[in-house]
Design brief:
This protein is an alpha+beta fold. It is built from five helices and nine strands, in the order E-E-E-H-H-E-H-E-H-E-E-E-E-H. It is globular and about 45 Å long.
Length: about 170
């Protein structure tokens, strides 16, 4: 488990334009926000990422570098972008299971076809949200074992305003 104020392991994924995104190469003003979704097979991920699309500009204004990723293939990630109307999100694909585990994410084996008729991958990372400081240390993490409960995004921007204004420290390090 990665604890707050400790270094987050470096990892790389492929952005939808084919370029490589690597955590250690990021230089955000305040945070890198990494949102891991289960994949194209997840209808709850579709709803969650739909809410996240409304926050992209606000995150940029607050110096937050956003990445949305999964262990999906390029083909499945592209279907998500097109069918879920989330083209404004900085989407990537190919988070390896090994890297997901290093990030403290849970991993599940596929169990068949979902309620929306999409086959789950053989193995995939479960959802998580990580806020990483520019020095690559963990500020905040919310890790799930299944898709049902995620951080509420409705107060995210106001909470970030408070955190940034007050210099609120990372907690949970003890």
């Amino acid at each position: 488990m990665i604890t707050p104020r400790k270094e987050v392991p470096d990892f790389a994924v492929t952005l939808m334009d084919g370029s490589t995104w690597r955590l250690s190469e990021r230089s955000p003003e305040n945070f890198t926000m990494i949102v891991v979704y289960r994949g194209y097979h997840c209808p709850l991920c579709k709803m969650y990422l739909g809410k996240l699309t409304k926050l992209v500009d606000g995150l940029k204004e607050r110096g937050i570098d956003l990445l949305v990723t999964s262990s999906d293939t390029q083909e499945r990630a592209q279907m998500a972008v097109e069918e879920w109307d989330i083209a404004n999100l900085p989407m990537s694909y190919g988070l390896s299971i090994e890297e997901a585990r290093k990030l403290g994410l849970f991993v599940s084996n596929g169990i068949g076809v979902t309620s929306t008729g999409v086959q789950e991958p053989e193995i995939f990372a479960e959802p998580g949200l990580l806020m990483v400081r520019p020095d690559q240390t963990l500020y905040f993490a919310d890790i799930q074992t299944m898709p049902f409960l995620r951080p509420d995004l409705s107060g995210l921007l106001a909470n970030l305003d408070f955190i940034l204004a007050k210099g609120y420290p990372a907690r949970g390090e003890a």
